[in-house]
Amino acid sequence: MSSRRLDKKIDAAFKFVGLAATLFGLVVLAALVIDVVSDGHQRLGWDFLTSYPSRKPEQAGIFSAWVGTLWIMITTAIFAIPLGIGSGIYLEEYAKRNRWTDFIEINIANLAGVPSIIYGILGLGLFIRMMHLDRSVLAGGLILALLILPVIILSTREALRSVPSSIREASYALGATKWQTVRHQVLPAGFGNILTGVILAMSRAIGETAPLITIGALTYIPFLPTNPVAFNKEIPYIHLSLQGFLDPFTVLPIQIFNWVSRPQKGFLVDAAAGIIVLLTITLAMNAIAIYLRYKNQKRW
Amino acid sequence: MVGNRHACSLYLLIWFMLKRNNIVKFKEALIERLLLCCSLLSVLTTAGIIWVLLSETIGFFKHVSVIDFLTDTQWTPMFTNKHFGILSLLSGTLVTTFIAIAVAVPLGLISATYLSEYATDKMRHIIKPLLEILAAVPTVVYGYFALLFVTPLLRQFIPGLSGFNALSAGLVMGIMIIPLVSSLSEDAMHAVPMGLREGAYALGSHKIQVAFKIVFPAALSGITAAVILAVSRAIGETMIVAIAAGQQPKFTVNPLVPIETITAYIVQISLGDTPHGTLEYSTIFVCGTTLFVITFFLNVISFKLKRRFQEIYE
Questions:
Q1: Which of A77, B9, B191, B302 is the most buried (most CB within 10 A)?
Q2: ipTM surpassing 0.85, yes or no?
Q3: pLDDT band (50, 70, 90) for residue A1
């Protein structure tokens, strides 16, 4: 009988230990946020968002960094989203189960676990040395696109898998072709979950630093990529340009890393302020994703 | 004459329908090919990685012997007296990885057991996404936190701690990979059929016994997969160690001194102005190859184990 009572006590104790272990990470996260906000809040302001990096910590800002992040994200999205979703559709809806698909699957699982810095080395060899894209927005965006591709593929597959096959069968019964079924039935049904995966993947890309350092993006960038739309006084008054994609860039995490690695105290404050901006963006994107996932929890 | 005209239009109609059908078929086939190309891109990516890494690595080993690379305990590619012993970078990587795993595995597994066996559904739905946020914080932010919060904090207890050290980098990295361990393990535990638990209860077991003697062993392949994936992630983690662990390749297991990991070395060379095409520069590809080979094996083992638990219970 005493051993039963002991077990009960252990049971109650584990309930407590388990909760403590689960919440421990969140406590650390809270400490991190408080630390960063208390370090950096005084630097945060309009000036910080609209100034270029500078030698003087009090005057430095993240203008070129957040504009660069925006450019890189748009480039990444253009490549990664269609390719990732397309690939997910193929593997989940079209591919037959055989050795070949098995190989592709292991390959994607491995790519999802390859260290991000390896993608930087790939970009260095492929986009910089072979294609001579230099340290451009296009090269950076392509690297991040390859990096998040497996994430998008895996979440697309999971989203499509949760669509019941009765929906597909009903569509076929009405005479729809495979693509019509996918396009008009399966994709809309899985759309919410695919979107969640895409947002999470993009939030990961925003925070990536290492692969962009490898292609040499860590430079002092006191200018922006060329504006894609420029207005002038001559006909046709508006000038469209893709030059921006070939211009050098910096992004938020790289700017932060640059400031962290300097000895002056002032730059550490700048880094903390930059982190507040970066964290706000990533946490907001994650909150949106969590909300979407929660909203899309459908029981078929 | 009239019948002939009818036959003619019927023929045209059939021809048109056939043609329309062909267009649809063609479009379907085209779309399938396009989607196939999308998924082949991932195979090409792997091929690209292997090609870029190998082409430089082969060139490197024409100048440096493989045995020196694997047994030398010094890594000094930038000095006049050059040594290329990967062991000193590898030891740095293994020390930080070990610390990270020592944090992430116990915490991750306890919280996975708690979430799967003890927590209510409602709690699980709130806590799981919150834990995932830990993995979503950019690593450069963790690097800042390790260097400017954790290290000063630890220094109050460990006087001999250097400003850059493996300990705080490893600890923070451990926090980051908790969700990786807990989420996948929890999935594996959740997939264990209710019948096994009920059987144990019927024999008079307590919840704690069910959790650790029934569910845990039954989910072991999934849990192992999670742990291996976490190890692979810790080995490849870059920014935290580049910021907080230092840049001194050293063949040591002492976590209190500055060290350098494989990844941090790649960052260091990328930041410097080493000319492309030199032997010094090709070291980053060799380091990349080492990293890729290690993580590749871990990832594949983890994938196979994960698939096994999915096959057993789903």
A1: B302
A2: yes
A3: very low
Domain ranges of chain A: 1-40, 47-295
Strand partners, A136: A248
Nearest beta carbon to residue A210 from set B106, B114, B267: B267
Q: Nearest-CA distance from B35 to chain A in Å?
A: 5
Question: Cα A39 to chain center, whole Å?
Answer: 26
CB B261 within 8 A of CB B245: yes
Q: Report the amino acid identity of residue A134.
A: D
CA A138 distance to own-chain centroid: 16
Instruction: Estimate to the nearest angstrom the gap between the alpha carbon of A160 and the chain centroid.
Output: 21
**Of A206, A223, A215, A226, which is closest to residue A148 (Cα–Cα)?**
A206
Helix (H, G, I), strand (E, B) or coil at A41: coil
B274 touches chain A (CB under 8 A): no
**CATH number for the domain formed by residue range(s) A47-295:** 1.10.3720.10
pLDDT of residue A160: 93
Q: Do A216 and B139 touch (CB under 8 A)?
A: no
- φ/ψ region of A239 (left if φ > 0, alpha if ψ in -120 to 50, else beta) reads beta
A39-53 CB burial, b ≥16 within 10 A, e <16: bbeebbeeebeebbb
Phi (first) and psi of residue A28, to 5 degrees = -60, -40
Tokens of A10: 């252990």
> Hey, what's the torsion of the CAs at B194, B197, B198, B201, to 10 degrees?
-160
Chain B residues whose beta carbon lies within 8 Å of the beta carbon of residue A90 = 32, 35-36, 38-39
Per residue, what are the HEC states of B238-272?
CHHHHHHCCCCCCCCCCCCCCCCCHHHHHHHHHHC
Residue B98 has pLDDT above 90, yes or no: yes
So what's the pLDDT on residue B3? 63
Nearest to A142 by CA among A133, A150, A151, A153: A133
Please judge whether A120 and B270 are an interchain contact, meaning their C-beta atoms are less than 8 angstroms apart.
yes
pLDDT in tens, A54-98: 888 888 888 888 999 999 999 999 999 999 999 999 999 998 888
